[in-house]
Amino acid sequence: MERGEILAVYLLCWCCSVCVVTAIQRADMFPYGNLSGDASLEVGDDVTSPVLSLPKPLYFYNDPVSQLYVATNGIISTQELLMEKQYVDDGFPTDFPVVAPFLADIDTSDEKGQRGQIYYRVTEIPSVLNKVAQEVHRGFPDAKFTPTHAVVATWENVAAYEERTTGRSNKVNTFQAVIGYDETDSYVLFLYPQDGLNFFGTRPKESYNVEIELPARVGFSRGEIVYMFFNRKQGPHYSVTSDEQSVKNLYQVGNTGIPGVWLFHTGNRYSFDNIVPASTGGLLATPPGEYGISLDTTTPEYDEYPDNGFDHDNQEEEDDYPLTGGDPEFHPAPAGSDFSESPQPGSPDTPSSPSEDSARQVSYGSEDVPLTSEPRYSFEPAGRQYAPLNPQENVPAGGAQQPQEQQPQVPLEVVDVYPPHRNEPPLSPGGHVVSVDEDDVDFETGVIQYTTENKETCARFQQQCSQNAFCSDYATGFCCHCKPGFYGNGHHCLPEGAPQRVSGKMSGTLTVGSTPVDLNNIDLHAYIVVGDGRAYTAISEVPEPLGWALMPVAPIGELFGWLFALELPNSQAGFKITGAEFTRRAEVIFYPSNQRLSIIQTGRGLDEHNHLTVDTEVNGNVPFIPPGAEVTMDPFKETYQYYPSVVTSTSVREFSVVSAERGSESFSFQLKQNITYRDCRHDNRAAAVETLQITMERAFVVYVKEERILRYAITNKISPVGVEPVGPELVNPCYAGNHDCDTTAQCIPLEGQAFNCQCATGYRGDGRNCYDIDECAEGLGTCGAHSQCVNLPGSHRCQCQSGYEFGFDGRTCVDVDECSSSPCHSNARCINGLGSFQCQCQLGFYGDGFYCFQQEGQTSRPKSQCEQHRDSLQSGVEHGGRPSLGAFIPQCDSDGRYRPLQCHGSTGHCWCVDRRGQERAGTRTPPGTAPTDCDRPERPKTPCEHHRDSIQTTSPEGYPIIGAYVPQCDANGQYSPLQCHGSIGHCWCVDSSGQERPGTRTLPGTTPKDCDKPDEPQRPKTQCEHHRDNILNSSPDGYPVVGVFVPQCDADGQYMSQQCHGSTGQCWCVDRRGQERAGTRTPAGVARVDCDRPVPVAPTQRPESVCERWRASLIEHYGGKPEPQQYVPQCEPDGQFSPVQCYGETTYCWCVDQDGREVPGTRSHDVVKPACLPSVAPPTVRPLPRPDVTPPTNTDVTLLYAQGQKIGVLPLNGTRLDASRSKTLLTLHGSIVVGLSYDCKENQVYWTDLSARTINRASMESGAEPEILINTNLVSPEGLAVDVKRRLMFWVDSNPDVIETANLDGSGRRTLFDADLVNPRAIIVVSSTGTLYWTDWNREAPKIESSSVDGQNRRVVVSDGIGLPNALTYDSSSGQICWADAGTKRLECIFPDGSGRKVIHATLNYPFSMVYYRNHFYYTDWRRDGVIAVSKDSSQFTDEYLPDQRSHLYGIAIATSHCLSGSH
After folding, report:
1. 1358/1390 Cα distance (integer angstroms)
2. Residue pair 1233/1179 in contact by the 8 Å Cβ criterion
């Protein structure tokens, strides 16, 4: 058989299988005309309707629209239209928003009124809304859409524009556009009745003599989008037609199952990138028929309109299709299937007819609604799809035709969509007919080949890739890929290994019980330690009772755990798939209450600090939880299903609630979610793994009533499904999350237990300690011409110089065309230049370009702005008629323009100005120096120049405050090495950042230091000297404020023991930190206290913290009464910095860390303060009114650890850490527990309290209460040791630098050592030998010493090769002393005589305290905030315990049911 005959037979078979579907008739259109309440558009060639105000706004794309305009030329717009010549003859898209059912040059002007009418209205009639709803659910079966309003626009019998000189054609068109919308979505119907289209294009007016015709344009355009303030770019658009043939087929083809009916999803309130067409095909059949929808009823029920041909005998097939209550609702096609294939008859997975498809909606509007309102799109990997022909599947066995079944539609070319969809999967076709040539058919496969002329390439769209990504072209398009050292989806890339911050807003309405609570854009912040999968989330300003009720809703924070989960082999965290732009929709159903909660979280990209921005909306009902209750989340595993552009999961969670009112209760909830994102499959890479498993190992939830902050802390790992965790000794630390890499480092697994730590991109170090690289200072930035580099943690960004802005690629700085904003006079010409512009008056006008004048009869030109400015000063007009001596007089050139270089005749300063006479920043030079070259292009200001200029324009008049220090900058804008205060005469040297170099300040009249010489070795300023100097220079003129207290320092820079206020005469004693000793203050004229005699300290008194001292100092600086806008540090009750700091009573707030340093990227000007994560998390167990002991159960050996205000219990199972049985032994509100020791004979725990300055003990029996043993003359008690054999205790005090001892009841206290100690930290006692060992944290000469328990035989055990010996323990099996060093990062052991020194582990993080038990060392780590186990035999980490609350752990001890041999 010949090839042509084969094609003919092929097409004949296909045509025989086409279902009989008829085009709509005019009677089937939506009602229109004057009788339907329509307004009529005035007749004419280019007419736009008056504004059509909408009762409620509709969303076009994701923009709210409150008014519409209907135009003659077949369009509806959201803005008043331009003259038709500016768009009607141009191509598509338009540069303004438009809905175009038939964009062409239409003309209704006819004196006889015979060239058609145009009608329009907005309506709420139920019959119309019902019809819109039915059509939407036909095209989008899963849409949850109930229209509240509809806009109907009808063009009836309208004609094309024709020249009056020629005979007019009788060809007229009729078509209709209907916009239906509710509060969140909008849909548009285009209707083209049979015989409704008789002309398919119009001729351009301006080239009418040329025989060309422009086909009508059908589609949607969002119009131009403004970006970077002034630039514009074409927004997304969607075309249905592209040539005349495709226009002709508008009434022959449809995308809803009915020819001539076209349906599109055109907007969504929350996230919408481009138009979504319906995906059900329809071919025109020869037999006539009717649309078949009645409009007689006004009942707003959708099911009263039966579909054509619905066979009630086939209703039992409904069971084959998932109803909206299915679990889960989302049913994508299986991997490997042809996603783009049209529904086929007989398939159990798809409806066999349009009517059956609509019959699925019997459950629409019932209580069990779908999880999302997303339509079921097909998932073609590329951005284009078509329905392939497959005639064999369309002919039933036996060859009998079944006309009632829907057949595949004509193969449709999918029109390019710009930009590609971000939050939705690629869409099914909604385009126009394609002609098929014989050579295009593969007769073996039956697949039609097609090509694309508008393929997206890197050359055109590389700007869509991250600056840390590269772009690759493929056969069907381009893809972005992150560079080595970064991870993400190519559009957004982050440095590998670096911690990640998230910020955003949370809003919605939640009902607790029967009480609705509104959330209005409250702050949400998260911090993720990517290296081990820990995610901390904080939500601010959550009111009661909602804060308690939201504690179980950890899924709000679980999104961040999935995005940045710890990756096990053959898996990847979510951010590598979604990047920073995604939409997550989740539904939570609580049991047994059956309350429902909806969560929508939208990723909106990365901000300038590389922080992820995520907005959260929550709505629904949550169960009531009693105030003060504790919520515990059980660990769980959850399987995620991965499909192109979407991820789904369903799981059930268990949680328990413990409250005083109800005791312990158990509940559960079901979570169903999907995450949609932008995918790229042009690279034809292998299909991604279909399922992955998230394991949540720990979850901590708490609501802090006092701060109204809700916190979630979770630890997530991601792995292939079925991968079960094995013993930690078999898991590489990188996968177990117990490695010791820095939080800004990546853990690289090696063979077995080995691993390497590699600093994240943008950081430098050994992997265990990493520091940010300043790419800008080191010349590593990627900024191009006309841009400035700004350093960020782990990265940098580029910002354009003045007069430049980022181009379309978002990277290159291009000149700003200032002339586009018409800055010049109306009679002047604007000339744009690089980084600037000029204004020149036109011929016949005079002036400087900004002001141009025409003076008839005068040969001389009028005065320019410069000349007027100059003459007004010289004549004294501004000073009462007399010129002001010493005033600046501007200099003008011969044309009256400001000279580029201006100089002050009195002061000698010179500077450059622009065309308006405004000073150009950074060009001012002092007298005696060479003026700036004003013709040289302007460079950006340096930090020195910013500093200087901010001081010079401090006063309201724009001048510096008299006597204020003004920094001096060199010709390059850098700080001059020698700085001098012009008023007080002090001089000093500064570094490159302008910071004073210690010891270089000289007084007036003395020779300044040579700042080019290197710093001479000298001691740094002490705390007292810093305190004194800050006050001495506190006023603008460099002198202390009158009446303020100035501390007195001795020759060594230490606080003098007695301080006196020079103004009030009061005196008091202070400790070594300058803190007043209670009870020592005396008024003027009264005998002073002897400050050398010890003074008892109240047992509950603690020293002032840094925050409190700073607060007191500033309040004193403000004269005791700070202004509402002045900054005063906010401190917690325990003296720590409050996580949120604000300027006085303003809304200018930011987050700080535990040292009061600002957390970058957290500043907020909102009324709602930012939600900040404190460095010290709230305790897991809330403080009890009366602290008592809750002992561990059924445990022989237990680790005790100190963590701030509590002592925790961590049982051992052999040598393994049994985290499942960990609990709180004792909660001590307001305490800081540091040293720990245990008395195995009396089963008592002893501890030092740094906050209360006490030594305490408590029995480990249930209900035991703490007992204060010593509460006087303690300043900074740290290490503590109990001698079980001799019934003694020993401790170190690191402030007076002493080691003391006492009996276990606190009696018999005496000092063992008070000399040759600088900063003693850890202390242990070996009872069997009667020997003491302690560490001295002296930075200049650290050491470990020993003596007998009575203070004899003191000697140094080791002093070489140590740095910061924090932790100390005794190895009873070998008789060695072992220590962990926070400076050298080593764990080492040595015999008491100094021999046999051995390194056990060489790469610790930041150890604080340590114990030894059965060949294992257990130490608390400040970097990990947990307990780490190290095997003595293998020298490897073997286990790790991270408490739920995140804060530093201090002392650690071993508690046993019986005394161990060699107990110390």
Report:
1. 8
2. no
Q: How confident is the model at residue 1325 (pLDDT cuts 50, 70, 90)?
A: very high
**Is the CB of residue 523 less than 8 Å from the CB of residue 1164?**
yes
For residues 1044 and 1029, give the distance between their C-alpha atoms in angstroms, rounded to a whole number: 13
CA dist., res. 1364 & res. 1322, Å (int): 11
State both tokens at 1404: 């610790």
Question: Per-residue pLDDT for 1313 more than 50?
Answer: yes
- Identity of the highest mean pLDDT range in 1037-1041, 1140-1144, 1210-1214, 1300-1304: 1300-1304
Give the model's pLDDT for residue 414.
Answer: 30
CA-to-CA distance for 1426 and 1447, rounded, in angstroms?
Answer: 9
The first and second tokens of residue 849, run together, are: 């370009």
List CB contacts of 724: < 8 A, sequence separation 6 or more: none
Under 8 Å between Cβ of 378 and 340: yes
Distance, in Å, from the CA atom of 1026 to the CA atom of 1043, rounded to the nearest integer, reads 19
Q: Is the preceding omega at residue 1139 within 30 degrees of 0, hence cis?
A: no
Residue 1243 CA, distance from chain mean position: 50
The 10 Å CB-count burial string (b at 16+, else e) for 1251-1275 is: bbbbbbbbbbeeebebeebbbebbb
- Give me the mean pLDDT over the 319-332 stretch: 34
Among the listed residues 540, 762, 507, the one whose alpha carbon sits nearest the alpha carbon of residue 618: 507
User: What string of DSSP letters covers 616-665?
Assistant: EEEEEEE----TT-EEEEPPEEEEEEEETTEEEEEEEEEEEEEETTTEEE
Closest CA to 1407 of 1323, 1343, 1322: 1322
Burial 1373-1399 (b: 16+ CB within 10 A, else e): eeebbbbbbbebbbbbbbebeeeeeee
For tokens 């007076």, what's the residue? 1296
> Which one, of 873, 976, 1388, 1426, lies nearest residue 1177 by Cα?
1426
Angle, helices 1023-1032/1106-1117, rounded to nearest 10 degrees: 20
By DSSP bridging, strand 795-800 and strand 1376-1381 are: unpaired
Element (H, E) at 528: strand 515-529
> Mind giving me the DSSP string for 694-737?
EEEEEEEEEEETTTTEEEEEEEEEEE-TT-----GGGS-HHHHT
CA distance 882 to 343: 92
Instruction: Give yes or no for a contact between 93 and 77, defined as CB atoms under 8 angstroms apart.
Output: no
- Whether cis (ω within 30° of 0) applies to the bond prior to 793 is no
pLDDT tens for 157-215 read: 999 888 765 666 788 999 999 999 998 999 999 999 988 899 998 887 765 455 677 88
> Could you tell me if 176 and 153 are in contact, meaning their C-beta atoms sit under 8 angstroms apart?
yes
φ, ψ for residue 1393, nearest 5 deg = -85, 5
- Which residues lie closer than 8 Å to 1393 by C-beta, 6 or more apart? none
The token duo for 371 is 């999880």
Instruction: Say how far apart CA 596 and CA 587 lie, in whole Å.
Output: 7
Residue 983 token pair:
């008023």
| The residue type at 284 | L
Q: Cα(237)–Cα(221) distance, rounded to whole angstroms?
A: 4
Q: Nearest 5°: CA angle at 1414, between 1410 and 1420?
A: 20
- This prediction has a pTM of 0.41
Strands of 81-171, DSSP E:
98-103, 106-107, 117-123, 149-160
Tell me the chain's radius of gyration from C-alpha atoms.
Answer: 40
Residue with tokens 């000349």: 867
Out of 119-123, 506-510, 931-935, pick the least confident.
931-935
Amino acid identity of residue 708, one-letter, is R
Q: Residue 1213: phi, psi to the nearest 5?
A: -110, 90
Q: What is the DSSP letter of 1273?
A: S
Hey, what amino acid is at 103?
Answer: L
Q: Which amino acid is at 791?
A: N
Q: Answer whether 1134's CB lies under 8 Å from 1120's CB.
A: no
